[in-house]
Amino acid sequence: MLSAVIFDFDGIIVDTEPLHYRAFQAILEPMGFGYSWEAYVEVYMGYDDRDAFREAFRVRGADLEDRELEGLIARKAAAFQGIIASGVTPYPGVVELIRSIRASRPLALCSGALRSDILPILEGLGLSNSFDVMVTADEVSASKPDPASYALAVRRLTTTFPDRQIRPNTCIAIEDTPAGIASATGAGIGVLAVTNSYPAVRLGGARRVVDSLADVSLDDLAALTGQE
Description:
Elements: E1 4-7, H1 17-28, H2 37-44, H3 49-58, H4 66-84, H5 94-102, E2 107-110, H6 115-124, E3 133-135, H7 148-160, E4 171-175, H8 178-186, E5 190-194, E6 208-210, H9 218-222
Parallel strand pairs: 1-2, 1-4, 2-3, 4-5, 5-6
Helix pairs in contact: 1-4, 3-4
């Protein structure tokens, strides 16, 4: 039985990946550490900001101290806020799906983005109060594909709904990246993957792959629980 649904954010609810890329480049290019969109998709997408900056420095053999890293994250967050100020469009069907699930099942958000990046967008989409639990990059030390964030989301759901018997194998995660799929499955959670960011051949490990959430229903998600 489906006990809860856990949504990724970037690439599932909104197409913010190009916006994050622009914000990263606004910070990194003046330092000589910029990279192409293709590199972002292949290497950096799925990382949280912390690990994305670490990787950008690592590939150039440059040291990055924790204090400098925190400053880069803050500057990138400010750049991102400026980019999204004019509004962000959700993916087709996702707002309707969230609202339909919300009527009968606990909902969580599990994202490698900062909470400060997420909340203004949710507010703009009218989804501020839709998620019972949120886990963001601010709250875990290891980003996806590490399972820590999804494991924390399930623990918080269990605490918030002690009578619902929420367990990893009765939850479904909705993801768009190989790193996200690995994170969820590593925590024992089945995945519905969407080809918003990668083709289906790159989304192995998901129980089902769809091209859009527009035609996905609560019954479709329930059917995925218990599969191996």
